[in-house]
């Protein structure tokens, strides 16, 4: 049996793992509420959440107790999650939602800045080049149409050869 100080250390690490799992769940819940993924994306993100949660809890168990799973490990994880949801979840949800919306606004702003820095100048340059080239080539296009029309009329006047 491990000494009491090591058991308290393991208990503390597992309480923190329960809190981390609660934060992960609130973050995922906010993601689902704000982004409203479709059915397939929901299934995939649910699977991803549970895989990450499992990895987190297994890493905590191996870090804290070298892979030994005792009853107090589960009690500690449940205590950590319960404390988080009772004491910190409402505030954390507000912070996570604010962060999500702020990141969304920042992303939209960066996309808009990139649009005006790169796309608008390219479109403007294309339009200018097209207008200049159109003006320069206009006489040649008119001349080609006139010559083509004259050739068509000349060909239409000639009679096709008679076959034997």
Structure report:
The chain is mostly helical. The protein has one domain. It is built from 3 helices and no strands. The longest helix is centred in the last third of the chain and has 87 residues, at 71-157. The protein is elongated and about 110 Å long. The N and C termini lie far apart (115 Å).
Which helices and strands occur, and which strands form pairs?
Blueprint: H1 4-35, H2 39-65, H3 71-157
Helix pairs in contact: 1-2, 1-3
Summarize the structure.
The model has no long low-confidence stretch (mean pLDDT about 90). The longest helix has about 90 residues, at about 70-155. This protein has one domain.
Element-by-element helix/strand order: HHH
**Number of DSSP-assigned strands:** 0
Tell me what portion of residues adopts beta-strand conformation: under 5%
Into how many domains do the coordinates divide? 1
Residues in helix, %: over 70%
Helices, by number, come to: 3
Q: What is the approximate shape? A: elongated
> Radius of gyration over alpha carbons?
35 Å
End-to-end gap: 115 Å
Largest β-sheet summary: none
């Amino acid at each position: 049996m491990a000494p009491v100080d090591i058991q308290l250390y393991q208990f503390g690490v597992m309480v923190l793992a329960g809190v981390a799992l609660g934060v992960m769940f609130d973050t995922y819940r906010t993601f689902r509420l704000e982004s409203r993924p479709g059915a397939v994306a929901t299934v995939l993100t649910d699977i991803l959440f549970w895989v990450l949660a499992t990895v987190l809890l297994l890493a905590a168990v191996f870090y804290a107790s070298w892979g030994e799973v005792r009853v107090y490990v589960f009690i500690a994880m449940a205590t950590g999650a319960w404390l988080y949801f009772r004491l910190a979840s409402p505030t954390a949800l507000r912070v996570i939602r604010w962060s999500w919306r702020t990141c969304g606004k920042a992303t939209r702003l960066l996309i808009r800045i990139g649009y005006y820095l790169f796309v608008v100048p390219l479109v403007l340059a294309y339009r200018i080049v097209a207008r200049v080239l159109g003006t320069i080539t206009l006489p040649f296009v008119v001349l080609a149409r006139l010559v083509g029309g004259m050739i068509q009329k000349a060909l239409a006047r000639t009679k096709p050869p008679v076959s034997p």
